[in-house]
Amino acid sequence: MIDLHTHSTASDGTYSPAELVHLAVQEGLSALALTDHDTVEGLFEAQAEAQGLGLAFVPGVEISVRFEGPGHCHVLGYFVDPESEGLRETLALLQQARSERNLRMVEKLQALGIEITLEELKERAGGGEIGRPHFAALLVEKGVVRKVEEAFERYLKKGAPAYVPKARLTEEEAFSAIRAAGGLPVLAHPWHLHLSPEALARYVARLKDLGLAGIEAYYTDHTPEFTSLCLELARRFDLVATGGSDFHGHNKPDIKLGRGFGNLRVPEECYRRLRERWESRGGA
After folding, report:
1. What pTM was estimated for this model as a whole?
2. Which of 70, 84, 113, 221 could lock 181 by a disulfide, CB 3.0 to 4.6 Å apart?
3. For the domain 2-91+168-280, what is the CATH code?
4. Mean pLDDT across the stretch 229-240?
């Protein structure tokens, strides 16, 4: 098994990068990608920890992009150089926007009569990027809601009273930053775009023209039928089919590393083909 979509405490996961690597080995994974939101800070620790453990490690990142549609769009960057100045500058802008967004969400919750502070969120994040899962976990801890899902439904989801839109790059900006770091851009969890098969094909075609290298076909929320559709799109547009669980640790307790909700199986071939595509484009 492999898992090419995971998060650590560097963003909104609950396992440190090193702990995540050891969990992957414990679970019998042969390849792991760390794809934290808008940051590459966890890659150094994870990469160092993976050496000598028999685990193929893929340095990655996940970036939100603007999407004029019913859902939301994220792009995964694989085999990125975490020391790339261009990528780090782009991510620094997103991190600044994230900090401003978090402050506005705190203010909205306070205006609703909920006692919550930015300092509490920073403590919960443990030095990583603060995200909505940290807000949700803190609301549960304070007894404002009973479950994380309730926190999103009542306060944090799009359209809810405390929601603030996230800063996003254009597709071109995201792809450029990933390629400048030597990486491959891959469309994450296309199910979350909420597009018809025909509209999805048109969108993938447009991204292909911009340099898209892959599509996440195997994913926790994908049905077998949707996975088949993504595999067909991969064949049609000469894209690498990838896959991952979107593991966040205890922030998404139902999702298991490498297994998603329990029945996810990402073929090892996905890693091999992804690496071959990267090497064919000049990767080390």
Report:
1. 0.89
2. 84
3. 3.20.20.140
4. 98
